[in-house]
Amino acid sequence: MSSKNKYLLPFILVTSLFFLWAFLHNINPILIPHLKKACQLNDTQSALIDFAVYMGYFAIALPAGWFMNKYGYKKGILFGLVLYGAGALLFLPSADTRSYTFFLIALFVIAAGATFLETIANPYITKLGDPATATQRLNFAQSFNGVGAFLAPLIGGKFILTGIEHSPDTLKAMEQSGTLQTYLQEEANAVRVPYLVIGIVVFILVALFLVVKLPEGEETTVDASQKEDKFSFSVLAIPQVRWAVLAQFFYVGAQVGVGSFFIRFSKYTMDLPEIPASQYLSLAMVGFMVGRFTGTFFMKFISPARLLVIYSAICVVLLLLASFVSGPVAVYAVMAVPFFMSIMFPTIFALGIAGLGAAARMASSLLVMAIVGGAFFPVLMGQLSDLTGGNIQISYLIPLICFIVVGIFGYSQSNKNEVVALQPGH
Question: What is the pLDDT of residues 287-304, one digit of tens each?
Fold first, then answer.
């Protein structure tokens, strides 16, 4: 068997994993308004969906890295897939009981599995072929993040959202007539078939990974001192790492917040129903995907740090519009944000690890852990909305502040003149 054929099937299988974690992150804006309705939640409670997912990443990132180094890529992928599939199947009893706590547990388990997959697939894809084309393979695999980001709102909007939105007065009348619980259970049941299908697909992948021979490709020459450096928190003493972790924390919080409340925001500002709003969100994620490609092109002429500053400033202006202008203009302003935030995760990542050598391994783990920002800022947005009588529009000032922090980080790095390539990201 030629070397090219040897790696083809493993490459296809590992590339499919990139879709899975992108789907997880980008289905949340569908689940948040849907479970808010089915479980009768306020905005703060509904934001716990993001909290469960991103706390899963925070809690599991380092254990996943340890597992990969001890047991290898294949076992790590299998373990991650089993967790992901099990979490998807947990949606069935969660829907049956209409228990929001069970839903959150299921999401945490899926996120734990996705953390394994993301921690392992990014470095592993570079091992599946000629080292000279490793970056090309990784960039191709990363394109499936964009596909997942685009398809998740479309699939969720079609198969999860029912389009039935009752006013508070109607809900009160249904409660008095005894039909409310039946309606709420029907809404909860809408997630059963989609997540059953997801679970089945993931366990099919488990079977394929079990039968397909995967080259491990682990480095066998790492000595004890390198391993110690790799897992040492002393790397935070390096200013660029410390500030990159902080910037990543704020950026992911902004990214998640902008998308998570988009359907609520569209309803509030222009009375857009949930299904059309999910389609608008999908279009916005096309912008995210296109932004990755155009951002890479612009970096041929503008340094990554300076482009980060420019894009952060544009996001601030767009969110000012979104927060204080009503109607379609506000919605279109939010829809434009994903295009400009598309380069931020990988650019912050790359600036944070630039020139670190062996220390880049621990820095990378910390930058992955920093996405826990996605657990906190949407909750703050929900709290601000609840405190202002359900004004979700004003809560978009919180991601605006986050983009200011990202811009400050970019400015601090803009005079270093380093050449930075885009790294794996969300």
Answer: 988 887 888 788 888 888
Eight-class DSSP state of 24? H
- Rounded Cα distance, 98 and 102, in Å: 8
**What's the residue count for the chain?**
426
Token pair recorded at residue 314: 């544009």
Q: Which two tokens stand for residue 17?
A: 């994993």
Distances (CA, A) of 221 to 217, 358, 392: 12, 13, 53
From CA 303, how far away is CA 411, in angstroms rounded?
A: 11
Q: Average pLDDT of 12-34?
A: 90
Spatial neighbors of 301 by CB under 8 A, at least 6 apart, are none
Q: Measure the CA–CA gap between 379 and 45, rounded to whole angstroms.
A: 8
Query: Is the pTM of the predicted complex or chain greater than 0.70?
Result: yes
Task: Find the distance separating the first CA and the last CA of the chain, reported in whole Å.
Answer: 35
Angle CA 175–180–182, to nearest 5: 150
pLDDT at 220: 40
Q: Are 81 and 205 in contact (CB under 8 A)?
A: yes
Q: How confident is the model at residue 281 (pLDDT cuts 50, 70, 90)?
A: very high
C-alpha angle 239/219/83, rounded to 5°?
80
Q: How many whole angstroms separate alpha carbon 254 and alpha carbon 207?
A: 37
3-class secondary structure, 166: coil
Answer yes or no: are the C-beta atoms of 207 and 13 closer than 8 Å.
no
Query: 198 vs 168, which has greater pLDDT?
Result: 198
Report the candidate in 195, 178, 143, 420 with the shortest Cα–Cα distance to residue 300.
420
Alpha carbon 281 to chain centroid, angstroms: 15
Please report the sign of the dihedral spanned by the C-alpha atoms of residue 340, residue 53, residue 61, residue 201.
negative
Report CA torsion sign: 127, 131, 135, 136: negative
Quick: pLDDT tens for 156-185: 988 998 888 888 899 999 999 999 999 999
Helix (H, G, I), strand (E, B), or coil: what is residue 106? helix
Helix (H, G, I), strand (E, B) or coil at 321: helix
CB 322 within 8 A of CB 268: no
Give the span between the Cα atoms of 140 and 121, in whole angstroms.
13
